[in-house]
Amino acid sequence: MIIFVMGVSASGKTTVGKLLASELNVPFFDADDFHPEVNLKKMASGKALNDEDRKGWLITLNALAKKEAKAIITCSALKESYRNILKEDLDKAVHFVYLKGSYELIYDRMIEREGHMMPVSLLQSQFDALEEPSTAITVSIELSPQEITEKIMKELSPKSDFGLIGLGVMGKSLCRNLINNNVELAMYNRHIDGVEERVAANFKEEYALDSAAAFDDLRQFVQALNTPRKIMLMVSAGPAIDHIVQDLIPLLDAGDIIIDGGNSHYSDTKRRIDSLAEHNLHFIGTGVSGGEEGALKGPSIMPGGHPDAYEQVKPFLERIAAKDKDGLPCCTYIGPAGSGHFVKMVHNGIEYAEMQLLAEIYQLCRFGKGMSPEQIADVLDSWKADGLDSFLLEITANILRKKEDDAYLIDLILDKAGNKGTGNWTTVAASQLGYPATMITAALYARYVSSYKSSREEASSVFGFENSAVQALSTDAIKEAYRLARIINHHQGFELIRTASDTFEWSLDLSAIARIWTNGCIIRSELMEQLIPSMNAHAAILHQNKQVKTVQDAREHLIALNIASLSAGFSMPCFTAALNFLHGYTESRGSANIIQAQRDYFGAHRYERVDDSSGKTYHTNWI
C-alpha cells in the first residue's frame, strides 16, 4: 500500500505524513527531498515550477513508490495529471489523502515558518494550479494533526460493500449466501445483556466467515460500510422495523439505502419510503421467498421502491437470487412504492391456497379412499410427469413418507394450522380492491377453523357426523380437478396483482413476476413456467388458449370431486371455492339482480336496467 499525502505548501503534509507512518509502521518520504537542484533554485528565486519542471520529479517519486512495498509519501500533487504519473503502473493499493485548507489559513501558517524552500509569494500559484481530487480521503486542516491522523486511519480501514441487520434464521442464511457470492459483508445483531450477546461474532466463528465483519454496536456497523451504504433489514415486520430505521437515520448519509427484506405490509413500506425521503435516504421494500433453504441457496426476490435506488442494490440482490432455467436471476425491479411487498403478499396468498388444495387431497384420499400416506405420496409423485410438478407437491409427497419409528409422522402432528398474517393481509387487500380472491380467503379461513381444535372435537361428539367412502372417485379425476383448481388459484392471484397495479398506477410486469417465481420461491412450479409467455398479453389466465381447453376438459372432474367429497362429509373449502368462482365467473347472467333489487327496496340504492345501456340508474317504489 502506498499513501500519497497531498495538498498545497504548509497544509501540514510532513507532520501528518510522519504521524501516519508511525501509526502504520511504514517508511516515510518527503517529496521535497527528491527535487532536483534546478527546481530548488527556481522556487527559492520566487518562480513557480511548471509542468515540465515537475515531470521528472514525479517520475522519480513513481519509481520510489514502485520500489517500496509500503510507504507514506508527501507530495503536493496539485493536478490530476500529476497524480496519474505518481500512481502509473503501481501493482499495489494506492490512496491519496488531501489536506484541505483555505488560502487565508495556509498563508498565516507560511508566514510563521522560517527557512522553508517555498516562499509565501508562490502560494497563490499553488492554489491556481490545484485541481481538488474527487476520490481522495479529504480532511480539513482545521483539525489538529492527531485528529487528522485518526480520521485518515478510520477511512483507511477496510470497509464492507453490503450490510445486513438481524441474524435470525433467514438473516443468517442470507449472510452465508452473500459471502458465498463474494460480497464484502458487515453483519449486525442487537446486544441485550443475558439474552442476545455476541450473536454476530458467534455466528461468524461458527461458520468460519472470516471475510465478514461482525458487530453488535450499530454505529460501528454503519461506519464499516462503503457509501452509499446498502443495509438490508431481516427483522420482524411491524414496530421493530420502525425502531431500527429510527436508530439508523442519524447515523446515515444522504443517498444511503435501507432494504426491508421481511414480510412488511405494503402500506407500511409506502409510508417508510415517504418518511425517509425527507432525510434524503432511500427505502426499498423487498419480498424474499424461499424459506431458510432458499435464503441460503438462492431465493426469489421482489424489490419495490425508487428505480434509481434499486439500480444501486441490483448487483447484490441479483447475485444471491435463484436462477431461472435460462440462468437469469429470479429477481427483478417490481415497481414503485410498496409494490414489492404487495407482490410478495399475494405470492403468500397463492401459497396458502396451493397448500390447502394438497391438504384437502390428502384428507380425501386418506379417509375417503382408505389410502396410506405412502400410497398418496406415490400418486402425487406420479402427477409430476403430467404437468403438475411443483415444490409444494414434492415436499408434500416427502412429508407423507416420513416416519418416526413405525408411525407416519403426519399422524403425530396436531391438525391445527398457524399463520403469520400475509394470508390475512391478502384477503383484506382483495376486499379493499374489490377483487374476489375466493380461494385465498377459503384457505385462510380453513386455517382459522383448524385453530378451534377443542370446539371441533366437542362438535364432533355432539353431532356424530361420519365420513363415508368415495371409492368411485378415481385418483385421475382428483388429479384433473386439482389441475383446474390450481389454474383458478393462479388466475385469482395474478388478477389481484393486476387490479392493484391499475389502482395504484404501478405498471407491474406480470410476465416478469411469473418468471422470478419459477425458482427459489415456495410456489415455483411447472405451471408457473407455462404462464410466462402470455402474461403480458393483458389476457387473464383463464382466458389464455391453453387454459381455456383445460377448463373445458377438467370442469366435470372438479364438479365430481366436490359432489363426491361433500356428499361423503368432507370439508373441501378450496376446491369448493374454485368451483363456485368458476361457475360465477362464467355465468353470462347471474343472481346479482336480486341483490340490487333488495338493496333498492330497503335502501333506495338504485339499479341499472338490461334494456338501457346508457348507465342511467333507476329506483322503484316497491310497496
Description:
It is a single chain. This protein has helices spanning 13-24, 37-44, 51-67, 80-87, 103-112, 123-129, 145-156, 169-180, 199-206, 218-223, 239-248, 266-277, 291-297, 307-320, 339-368, 373-383, 391-401, 422-433, 438-451, 453-463, 475-504, 510-516, 526-531, 545-567, 573-585, 592-603; strands at 2-6, 28-30, 71-74, 94-100, 137-140, 162-165, 185-188, 213-215, 230-233, 257-260, 282-289, 300-304, 403-404, 407-408. Helix 15 (339-368) crosses helix 18, helix 18 packs across helix 19 and helix 21 (475-504) packs across helix 24. The mean pLDDT is 94. The chain has 26 helices and 14 strands.
In short:
The chain is of the alpha/beta class and 623 residues long.
Sum up the structure in keywords.
five-stranded parallel β-sheet; 623 residues; 9% strand; alpha/beta
SSE topology:
Layout: E1 2-6, H1 13-24, E2 28-30, H2 37-44, H3 51-67, E3 71-74, H4 80-87, E4 94-100, H5 103-112, H6 123-129, E5 137-140, H7 145-156, E6 162-165, H8 169-180, E7 185-188, H9 199-206, E8 213-215, H10 218-223, E9 230-233, H11 239-248, E10 257-260, H12 266-277, E11 282-289, H13 291-297, E12 300-304, H14 307-320, H15 339-368, H16 373-383, H17 391-401, E13 403-404, E14 407-408, H18 422-433, H19 438-451, H20 453-463, H21 475-504, H22 510-516, H23 526-531, H24 545-567, H25 573-585, H26 592-603
Parallel strand pairs: 1-3, 1-4, 2-3, 4-5, 6-7, 6-9, 7-8, 9-10, 10-11
Antiparallel strand pairs: 11-12, 13-14
Helix pairs in contact: 1-7, 3-4, 8-13, 15-18, 15-19, 15-21, 16-17, 18-19, 19-25, 21-24, 21-25, 24-25
